[in-house]
Amino acid sequence: MSIPKEPRALMINIMYLVLTAMLALNVSAEIFNAFKIVDKGLIKSNKALEESNKALPELIRDGAKKKKALEKYAERIEPAQELSKVINQEMDEIMDWLIDASGNQDGEYNDEDYVFKDGKKTSTLRGKKNKDVTTRLLVKEERGEELKAQLMEYRDKILELVDEEDRASFAKEIPSIIDDETWRERAATKSKNAKFDWATFNFKQMPVQAVLPIFRKFQNDVISIEATFLNYLANKVGTSTDVVLDKFTVVSSPEKTYVINGETFKTEVFMSASASAESNTGVSISVNGRPLSVNEDGVAEFSTRANGVGKKTYNVEASIKNPVTDEVQTFKRAYEYEVGERSAAISASKMNVFYIGVDNPVEVSVAGVASSQVNVSMGGSGGGSISKNSDGTYNVTVKQPTPNGQFAKINLTAPGFSASKDFRVKRIPDPVPMLSKSRGGKMGSGTFKVQGGVSPVLQGFDFDAKCDIAGFTVVRVPRRQDPEIAINPGGSYKGDTQRIINKAVPGDRYFFENIKCKCPGDPAARDLGTMSFVIN
To answer: What gap in Å lies between CA 316 and CA 251, rounded to an integer?
Structure first.
């Protein structure tokens, strides 16, 4: 860069260089502040995890007292906690050494560490940018590789405390701690003579402030593994103990709540807590005062013939002896079902018309008849066809509009029943051409220029359909100048059209004419009319 001789230009260049340097310093400060925020966040997260782990050992020991076979799980608590304690203390010592060696000299790093600056205290790590101490200890003196080996050994020893048949699934639930894939990929790009290992990848030329969150993350992994292991032990104790159910409710499970006149209504009535024959000893169930036979699973079946149309009510009473208190508890509840006449319904899921070029969902139902016994077909005008979806609904496609007085028909037949319904067939309605969300009027030059083209919008159309602009003509009418015209193929601006659009200045008028659009099912493009914009 040549140095200007004119004083004013020289002063401006110097101010630019100073501003650039200040911006660089600000970015650097923000990055180090981010490291500090992450470090403090991980410290809080680790403390929260440690607190949540404190209650588990006592629960595990209490659960293990219920059976001799469960004592082995309580005995594994202290070995796991000791493993976590040792590895976490090791990482604390390394962090304390780095903080001291970089300049703090107090072996601690917390909110009480202050550096005096201009007679004021600031909560700042004195040696936060120091890269030499991290490289020396963790890379050159190979303390980083030693830590890697210790972390991997910790994970393996925790796995040894897990039952052999559970180790594979448990290993998937805990973090691996050491990421070997990333640094090995990086090492593959290095020279064969250059030393590049896990410690080099993570710690070489890394400032102290950036290394601390890495160590906190390792500690977080250790605490998380311990938490997962303690929960594993708690689950082993919990799933192996006998659980006594001391709360019950009566449940009715009918085959259908709506039945046809003359059909049989059937339901299962049971205690919700009755999971085994032993648990259900002493269960008695009655419906409308009539005792029911209860099987070994605590389930009773009630059935009655449906007489008369309308809602029907049946009252259930169940009694059971509580296995904990020996108290006999009785539960009562009323249930309803409805009896109706056989009927059918055919309806379009969105509106009472079929549209060409899109899927038209249709729901067909016949009360009291299984869907497998219902036959549905398509007839009438419109060239339509119908197919059944996996969820039991139907899909209709049509090819041409129906003339006045003619309809597309859906026909259905079922045992003892038949019905049909008429539907009109129409083209998809004309979309509205738009620039952004505007159909015309005033628009700022900046907003006008950034529009990529004309879009067809189907307003108030509920179906999943997409129309495409086939082309249009753009006319630019600038003040006191001759108009410019461009013919654009497709909806997006191209060539001369884009050049004319880019010229937009306040006072210009733009006309979008002969806008053509093609929608699904259209044999030819439609004319969508004209748009007019005034640039302000």
So the answer is: 9
**In sequence order, which residues have a C-beta less than 8 Å from that of residue 423 and are 6 or more positions away?**
348, 352, 353, 354, 382, 396, 407, 408, 409, 410
Q: Is the pTM of this model over 0.90?
A: no
Bridge partners, 488 (sequence order): 472
Identity of the amino acid at 132: D
Q: Give the integer Cα–Cα distance in Å for 450 and 16.
A: 31
- State residue 126 phi and psi, 5-degree precision: -60, -45
Sign of the CA dihedral with 440 first, then 443, 445, and 446 last:
negative
DSSP string of 57-94? Answer: HHHHHHHHTT-GGGHHHHTTHHHHHHHHHHHHHHHHHH
Q: Is the dihedral of CA 268, 273, 279, 281 positive or negative?
A: negative
pLDDT (mean) for 185-209: 73
Q: Give yes or no for a contact between 59 and 74, defined as CB atoms under 8 angstroms apart.
A: no
Q: Environment class of residue 535 by beta-carbon count within 10 Å: exposed (0-12), middle (13-18) or buried (19+)?
A: buried
Given a contact cutoff of 8 angstroms between Cβ atoms, the answer to whether 469 and 524 are in contact is no
At residue 189, does pLDDT exceed 70? no
Q: What is the DSSP letter of 279?
A: T
- pLDDT tens column, 341-350: 666 666 665 5
* Rounded distance between C-alpha atoms, residue 364 and residue 378, angstroms: 13
Strand partners, 438: 435
Residue 492 CB neighbours (<10 A): 14
pLDDT of residue 135: 87
**Cα gap 136→129, rounded to integer Å:** 14
Query: What pLDDT sits at residue 424?
Result: 92
pLDDT score of 23: 40
The helix or strand, by DSSP H or E, that contains position 451, with its residue range, turns out to be none
Residue 12: pLDDT above 50? Answer: no
